[in-house]
Write a structure and sequence with these properties.
Distance between the termini: 40 Å
Mean pLDDT: 85
Structural class: alpha+beta
CATH architecture of the largest domain: Alpha-Beta Barrel
CATH topology of the largest domain: TIM Barrel
Length: 749
């Protein structure tokens, strides 16, 4: 077990060697300072318990405590999430913390050579994460610590976390100093005056006439009057002239021994420095009898810094740090208040459309600036009639009390869309975003706060599905749709972890003689309860989720490996078609991932054809063009899927490095009985020939369609006439592929 200071008195906190007698003397002084607080075996101080709870909540720790390090033990005075009352000092993390001048942070104790063999790490309570700040008295003695602990390691403890913990430690020290002085008050007057004069807090005493009889060095620093100037003066010197009629009168009544509600309490008032400056002062007031006469005492401290800390803690607890809007907790509280008041209300869930693209293209600094501008616009749009909050990421929410009319609520949602859709000018850049809004009304369909938010979220989902840039009002059917979508998302995560995705392969053949030329790899979900699911049941949810690129890369690797296995089994030439999704382009390293898949499987680049859709092409992202050009340079084919079904222009055929156009099945289906479809097919084939592109028809189901396509100059096709998408083994049997070389990866991880 690592040696922990101060068990070895030869090491001081800075690591320098010191004589044992000096270390022992310093330790005795520290223990004496601890004893002066009379706290080791006392009942927990409620004010310290409150600070501990605040530390745990603000810093997300399951356990927090104030501990004091005695000669041979560590005593937990105020605690949350911890059942221990004390431990031996030789195993206490805090014994090392008090030897430091700064915060001690241990992100993973099991990996730290100082603590990994500690029984508190290897056994109950299984401490893995620890952060502690020493509680150091005005004389510099570290008597204890304010600590956080948890059974799981952390990846980081940020500078912001450190500042919060240090600020809270100062609050603990304030309370401890009050306790020390109160303990000293119970001692003899001479001892009290000695301790009071060394206190960092101002100690002031007065006689029954309200005249200053004791003025500590700290009082001189706090108020600016020297001892000689203050002694004998009225208590009025503590407060501004404009307040002397009230505050001075209360203080004088206490000095005379009159009963008052202020006695024994801590109060705040405005103090006055000698030069007239004013500042907030906290006073703890008490009286006693001295030589048969009433005497008065006050402990005073400047709480300006504390007010700043408390304000910062309030901001952290209630406001979003980036936008300064109320946070999610405040939003929920406002919704609950509206519901309790039984008033109609509307909740708007708002999502910035296109924010991720701005963030990815220009960086987080620009993204943060856009969010701040959006928050300012939203705050102005909502005004004082409602509450606008940041819900998380690029999502915002608005609560509008007394709005029960759906037309009014939708109009407000449209106003929000209008204001958030104006251009954002940041650092010379102009970012153009849109917004989608979901609206839910209470008590029309919702009775609880969480339910109201869930309904607004379901309406937001519908707005996105309807093309974005619109506001949608919640209706009961949306709940079921949102629940299905959420269940699908959860199921997809399990499918990735459990390897439930499989690939089916649809043959691509020569129209002239039916020779196999390749196959298109198509994803399927082998659901453990619902059986084999087609892409229509899950692909849209997958493409809009966070795992689309991961699954797309799995499809790429698996299809390449299978194609190479068949090629090695004698099927050459053979080309494998793999569909790309938009998410695979976002990280900018698609070329490297394709190259890695080819190198890993041994598949030649010319045997791979990547299929892209109009959705990807119409993004007009220069990065997409550059990536496709790099892939084409490698020798990989690029096919444009479903050409002619959307808005793709002829200019895109010049701009993008395509090698093949795929005629959509909707045109092939009407080829024999609809002259317009036939004209489109003929035009695509002629267009392909003019641009030097290959062409392949999808959805061929009849011999007549095959003959007409062949007559129009189309050389390849795929469709049910030649084979449905089929599993690996069926494909191998159908086309007499060496089954021993069939390959199917079992996981998308």
């Amino acid at each position: 077990m690592a040696e922990i200071f101060p068990i070895s008195p030869r090491i001081n906190p800075e690591g320098a060697s010191v004589p044992p007698s000096h270390a022992q003397t310093d330790e005795e002084a520290r223990l004496q300072a601890l004893a002066e607080h009379e706290i080791l075996d006392a009942e927990p101080d409620p004010s310290l318990a409150h600070i501990v709870e605040l530390a745990a909540r603000l810093l997300g720790a399951p356990a927090a405590f104030v501990s004091f390090v005695d000669r041979d033990r560590q005593v937990f005075h105020a605690k949350i999430g911890l059942s221990l009352c004390e431990t031996d000092r030789d195993v206490a993390f805090c014994a090392r913390t008090i030897a430091q001048t700064d915060i001690l942070v241990v992100l993973d104790a099991s990996q730290d050579p100082r603590f990994r063999d500690n029984p508190l790490v290897t056994g109950a309570p299984f401490i893995r994460f620890y952060a502690g700040v020493p509680l150091r008295t005005g004389d510099g003695h570290a008597i204890g610590t304010l600590c956080l602990a948890g059974p799981k390691p952390r990846r980081a403890f940020t500078g912001r976390d450190r500042r919060i913990l240090a600020d809270l430690a100062r609050l603990v020290l304030d309370r401890l100093e009050l306790r020390r002085v109160e303990a000293a008050r119970r001692a003899t007057q001479s001892r009290f005056e000695h301790i009071a004069d060394t206190s960092s807090d101002a100690i002031i005493c007065a006689d029954a006439h309200g005249r200053v009889s004791f003025w500590s060095a700290a009082a001189e620093r706090l108020f600016g009057h020297t001892v000689a100037e203050a002694l004998g003066q009225p208590l009025a010197i503590l407060v501004p002239e404009r307040m002397r009629g009230g505050h001075e009168g209360d203080l004088c009544r206490i000095a005379r021994g009159a009963a008052t509600r202020l006695l024994g309490r801590t109060v705040e008032l405005i103090g006055r420095y000698k030069d007239g400056r004013e500042f907030p002062v906290e006073l703890s007031l008490c009286t006693w009898a001295e030589n048969g006469h009433a005497a008065f005492g006050a402990i005073a401290r400047d709480v300006s810094q504390r007010h700043m800390v408390e304000e910062r803690l309030f901001q952290l607890a209630h406001l979003d740090t980036l936008t300064n809007l109320p946070n999610r907790a405040v939003l929920r509280g406002r919704i609950e208040a509206v519901i309790l008041e039984a008033c109609p209300a509307a909740v708007l869930m708002i999502d910035l459309d296109g924010f991720k693209e701005v963030n990815d293209a220009h960086g987080h600094a620009v993204g943060d600036a856009v969010l701040r501008l959006a928050a300012d616009r939203l705050r102005i749009c909502v005004g004082t009639t409602g509450v606008a909050a940041r819900f998380g990421g690029d999502e915002f929410a608005v609560v509008l009390p007394d709005v029960g009319d759906p037309l009014v609520a939708i109009a407000k949602g449209q106003a929000v869309i209008d204001v958030l859709s104006k251009p954002y000018r940041v650092e010379g850049l102009v970012a153009r975003l849109g917004a989608s809004v979901g609206v839910a009304l209470s008590p029309a369909y919702c009775v609880g706060g969480d339910e109201l938010l869930a309904c607004a979220d379901a309406a937001l989902y519908r707005a996105k599905m309807d093309g974005r840039g619109c506001a949608r009002l919640f209706t009961p059917d949306m709940r079921e749709i949102a629940q299905r979508e959420r269940a699908c998302r959860d199921g997809l995560r399990r499918a990735i972890e459990q390897g439930e995705f499989v690939l089916h392969y649809q043959p691509q053949v020569s129209l002239s003689d039916g020779t196999l030329t390749g196959a298109e790899a198509l994803i399927r979900w082998q659901h453990p309860e619902l059986g084999l699911l087609m892409p229509g049941a899950f692909l849209e949810v997958l493409d809009n989720g966070p795992d689309a690129a991961q699954v797309g890369d799995w499809v790429l690797r698996t299809a390449c490996a299978q194609a190479q296995a068949w090629r090695q089994g004698g099927v050459t030439p053979f080309r494998i078609g793999v569909n790309l999704c938009a998410a695979q382009f976002r990280d900018g390293d698609l070329t490297e991932r394709v190259a890695a898949a080819l190198a890993e499987t041994g598949l030649p680049a010319h045997a791979l054809e990547l299929e892209i859709t109009e959705t990807i092409i119409l993004r007009h992202d220069p990065g997409v063009v550059a990536t496709l050009q790099d892939l084409r340079t490698m020798g990989v084919g690029i096919a444009f899927d479903d050409y002619g079904t959307g808005y793709a222009s002829l200019s895109l055929l010049k701009r993008f490095p395509l090698t093949r156009l795929k005629i959509d099945r909707s045109f092939v289906n009407g080829l024999c009985n609809d002259r317009r479809d036939a004209a489109v097919v003929r035009a695509v084939i002629n267009l392909s020939r003019s641009f030097g592109l290959e062409v392949i028809a999808e959805g061929v189901e009849t011999e007549e369609q095959r003959q007409r396509l062949l007559a129009k100059g189309c050389n390849e096709a795929q469709g049910y006439l030649f084979g449905r998408p089929m599993p690996v083994t069926e494909f191998a049997t159908r086309f007499e592929v060496d089954r021993g070389r069939a390959h199917q990866s079992s996981t998308a991880a």
